[in-house]
Write a structure and sequence with these properties.
The protein has 17 helices and no strands. The chain is mainly α. Helix 5 crosses helix 17. It starts with a helix and ends with a helix.
């Protein structure tokens, strides 16, 4: 019986390998050119995805600086307050398992446009909901809708942009993520301090709706997309291929650890800075998100360093930066805390740019599904570690949060060492 099963699995895999070979051969025969950096359409595509990255991260993470406000307004603990983010990222990670394969069957652009419009609408609705459970429900829908963008964006770029410029394009997209995360936090923190966090939500939702319409009009249709089956058997075979790869499971684990550490830092640093001995205002806490600009630089810089030093070494250096930054936040002076957060942020965006780009290089088939698995782990880290950090904060204050993040980073460094030893 085991022999029959083994033969069956080998036949299925060999069939997949033949499909891969046929796809590659079709790609060589295709007369459709890839988008080059000097092409006029390259600027349209790059700007479109920069704007999308900005809008999605702004909508996903604008709640972080107002978590203490939500704790007070709804009389809930920090861990419960963090559910406003954790529930969104949790639903996003689950949605990725659907929207990635869905885009492999239906196409890239349509899935992304519908997802962006739905996200903007649910965000606007959340501004008028008055119950805590109602807000959590809307935030869950926001996360589920955003999965259609997160699962497909990097796949579209890897399919349509010339291979020589894919890493740069993904770096620019992730730069949009960093600026979006900064803008969402900054706008919400300042407006919440002077007016109301609900007004900030209305502004962000309106911006996202405008971005979705612009994205729809500006982004060209896919030239190299080839529809694949949604049959469960095909999805299962592709999943087995991804998990049998030497590097992909390690990259999936890295995604969980990197994002979990990053989100935990920003979820609870606001609680620390609002309390003694700092007593900073909500506006100043929101301004802390300016450190995201370092991620805009490091994400694109990492892409250039890869060609010189290799993916493994750049990834290890970036993760080490995150660990160093976390340890620096243990010192009391405010400049040390800000410096530590800045170093951790710089390392995070560089590490994410390297790891996410590595997925497309290692996945030989169903690249959107591979990206979805990476992002599933990425946002699961945000959801699970981001909430667990609240427990460490409640019992051990900032020392506990820093110890938790440091543990995640040490594991990430170990996995990075294993990735670095893989054949090039």
């Amino acid at each position: 019986m085991n022999t029959i099963q083994s033969v069956s699995e080998k036949s299925a895999v060999s069939g997949v390998e033949r499909d891969v070979e046929n796809t590659i051969n079709q790609g060589h025969k295709s007369k459709q050119p890839y988008i080059q950096r000097e092409d006029a359409v390259y600027l349209r595509v790059t700007f479109s995805f920069f704007a999308v990255g900005l809008a999605t991260f702004a909508l996903l993470y604008f709640v972080q600086p107002i978590l203490p406000i939500l704790s007070d307004e709804f009389d809930i603990s920090p861990a419960n307050s963090s559910l406003a983010l954790s529930l969104s990222t949790g639903m996003l990670s689950l949605g990725l398992l659907i929207t990635g394969p869905l885009s492999d069957a239906l196409g890239r652009k349509h899935v992304m446009v519908v997802s962006l419009i739905a996200t903007a609408i649910f965000t606007l609705l959340s501004s008028v909901v008055t119950s805590w459970h109602g807000i959590l429900f809307m935030r869950a829908l926001v996360g589920l809708s955003l999965s259609g963008v997160a699962a497909v964006a990097m796949t579209y770029l890897s399919e349509e942009i010339h291979p020589s410029y894919v890493t740069l394009s993904i770096g620019l997209y992730i730069s949009g993520n960093s600026i979006g995360g900064m803008s969402g936090r900054l706008i919400t923190g300042v407006i919440a301090d002077h007016y109301s966090w609900r007004i900030a939500v209305i502004l962000l939702g309106t911006f996202a709706l405008i971005s979705a319409i612009a994205f729809w009009k500006m982004l060209p249709e896919s030239r190299h997309f080839k529809s694949s089956s949604l049959r469960p058997k095909s999805l299962l075979i592709n999943l087995k291929l991804h998990l049998r790869d030497q590097g992909l499971p390690l990259l999936f684990a890295e995604a969980f650890l990197l994002m979990g550490s990053f989100v935990t830092m920003f979820n609870y640093i606001g609680y620390r800075l609002l309390e003694a001995p700092y007593h900073l205002s909500q506006t100043i806490v929101g301004l802390l998100s300016v450190v995201y600009l370092t991620g805009t630089y490091s994400a694109t810089k990492a892409g250039r360093l890869i060609s010189k030093h290799g993916r493994g070494k750049v990834l290890l250096a970036a993760i080490s930066m995150m660990l160093i930054g976390c340890l620096i936040t243990l010192f009391s002076p405010i400049w040390a805390v800000i410096l530590g957060v800045m170093i951790l942020t710089t390392g995070f965006f560089a590490a994410h740019a390297v790891a996410s780009g590595w997925i497309g290089q290692r996945a030989k088939r169903a690249k959107a599904q591979a990206s979805s698995l990476y992002l599933f782990c990425y946002y699961s880290g945000s959801s699970i570690a981001g909430t667990l950090g609240g427990i460490f904060w409640s019992y051990f204050a900032w020392n506990g949060v820093a110890a938790f993040i440091s543990l995640l980073m040490i594991i990430a460094i170990y996995l990075g060492l294993r990735l670095n030893k893989l054949p090039k």
